[in-house]
Design a protein that fits this description.
This protein is α+β, with helices and mostly antiparallel strands and 446 residues long. It has 14 helices and 20 strands. The chain has three domains: 226 residues, HUPs (Rossmann fold), CATH 3.40.50; 77 residues, 2-Layer Sandwich (Uridine Diphospho-n-acetylenolpyruvylglucosamine Reductase, domain 3); 130 residues, no CATH class. A six-stranded mixed sheet has the order 3-2-1-4-6-5, sandwiched between helices. It has a five-stranded antiparallel sheet with strand order 10-14-17-18-19, with no helix packed on it. A four-stranded antiparallel sheet has the order 11-12-20-13, with no helix packed on it. The longest helix is centred in the middle third of the chain and has 22 residues. The protein is elongated and about 95 Å long.
Length: 446
């Protein structure tokens, strides 16, 4: 049996200004129970939302059931049509696409002072925990199904997380309801989640009983994860550096990296744990210039310790070649790399040769043109402090392979390679120690 006091307590935790609850209504046991409980306990505006995904032969039958059920309860219903198979994006699974499209529907319906109630229950929490535990996840991922969650401006509320599905089903039966929509794909154990639900959890229950200890552990985990998330929320992550990461607890690194990525792109999906581990290894090894294929749409590039998220470009733009007239223009943009180069005069005391985003050269001879281009086979240069000409390919190998390295820009003056941004400079155009001012070319992310 379910304890109605627990549900009423969940309702009391709702913010006082909420005056409309939309219920995600599939017609299954959990959403039917949620809608009936809210009909019984919620005295303000209540609306069911049924989203027809058009994924199964029974989809239209489910829609009819939901319309009849809500009519019985005298609850208004909104029906939204989405065609998941037709609207999937590259790299998306059906589950990911369906979730994105559902959120789009919620966003369209959303209004101030509204919450969207979802029927996730304790069994979903346990399934989610086991699935993410075996895939690899931090505590926030392991406790991903929380009572409250905000995505952009959409407030999600899950008031049934303390109830087992069988208890919800029994409560509905006692109320005279025993017919619900059934998704037969939930019986297909080739899906890992279904295998956990149908085989793994029953075996655990045979050994440990009702698994109350597991649910208590997940509540503790949820509390601790919420605390760590709050710590990250307090950080200014409009920018990120290796120094920032090394200055905070490693327990926060995953969250900090993911939140920085989200703030830069608006994207919460598609970053694999293995890629974050690779990034952490680079930072711990003291590397400050590298590139990671971090997401299907983005590279994560680190230049001199500064984190940059760069949108992937079409392969046709990988080769570039620009002539920069230094006399006429004090800057030039390289859209392929989201970079702009600037020319300025600086006092010699301001020179910092360790900063590889800057290239300093003598004011005695300002070349009229500079060429900025991509690296080509056979490129060679004489590295500053050396006397022998070396291949760029060999010089750059120490900075990692090309796929994991910051993309380089070859800078030519007087048809000689003088700088390979952001890695090495040459012996050409050396600064005279007697000069008070020198020329500086600097690169800035745009």
């Amino acid at each position: 049996m379910i304890d109605l006091n627990l549900f009423e307590n969940a309702m009391e935790r709702l913010p006082a200004h909420i005056d409309h609850i939309y219920v995600g209504f599939s017609g299954g046991v959990d959403s039917c129970a949620l809608l009936m409980l809210l009909k019984k306990c919620w005295l303000k505006n209540l609306t069911a939302i049924h989203i027809n995904h058009h994924l199964r032969e029974e989809s239209n039958d489910d829609q009819v059931f939901c319309e009849h059920f809500t009519q019985q309860l005298q609850v208004p219903i909104l029906v939204e049509q989405i065609f998941v198979n037709d609207e999937m994006e590259t790299g998306e699974s059906i589950e990911m696409a369906a979730r994105r499209l559902r959120l789009n529907c919620f966003h369209k319906i959303n209004k101030p002072n509204a919450y969207f109630a979802l029927g996730h229950h304790a069994d979903d929490v346990l399934e989610n925990f086991l699935l993410r535990f075996l895939r690899g996840s931090n505590s926030s991922g392991l406790s991903g199904l929380r009572e409250y969650h905000k995505i952009n401006e959409i407030h999600l509320w899950r008031p049934l997380l303390q109830f087992r599905k069988e208890d919800l089903k029994q409560w509905l039966s006692d109320a005279g309801f025993s017919d619900f929509c059934k998704d037969h794909s939930n019986l297909d154990i080739t899906f890992k989640r279904n295998h956990i639900r149908l085989n793994v959890i029953p075996e655990l229950e045979k050994v440990f009983g009702q698994l109350n200890g597991a649910f208590h552990s997940m509540n503790f985990l949820n509390t601790e994860a919420s605390f760590l998330d709050e710590q990250v929320q307090q950080l200014d992550l409009s920018s990120l550096t290796c120094e920032t990461l090394l200055g905070i607890s490693p327990a926060l690194w995953d969250r900090v990296i993911k939140r920085f990525f989200f703030l830069q792109t608006g994207n919460r999906q598609g970053v694999r744990l293995s890629l974050i581990d690779t990034l952490k290894n680079y930072v711990n090894d003291g590397q400050i210039n590298f590139k990671i294929d971090f997401h299907k749409d983005f590279f994560l590039t680190v230049r001199n310790g500064n984190f940059l998220v760069i949108k992937k470009q079409d392969k046709k733009t990988s080769d570039f070649n620009y002539y920069w007239n230094l006399v006429q223009d004090n800057s030039i943009e390289l859209p392929e790399l989201n970079l702009r180069f600037f020319l300025e005069r600086v006092h010699q005391k301001q020179i910092d040769y360790k900063d590889l985003n800057h290239f300093y050269f003598s004011c005695k001879n300002l070349p009229s043109h500079v060429r900025l281009r991509s690296r080509r086979p056979g490129d060679r240069m004489i590295v500053f402090g050396d006397s022998q000409e070396r291949k760029l390919k060999h010089l750059l190998q120490s900075y990692g392979n090309k796929e994991n390295r910051t993309p380089e820009v070859v800078v030519e003056m007087d048809e000689q390679i003088t700088w390979v941004f952001p890695f090495r400079r040459s012996n050409h155009f050396p600064v005279d120690v007697q000069e008070v001012e020198v020329w500086c070319i600097k690169a800035i992310e745009v």
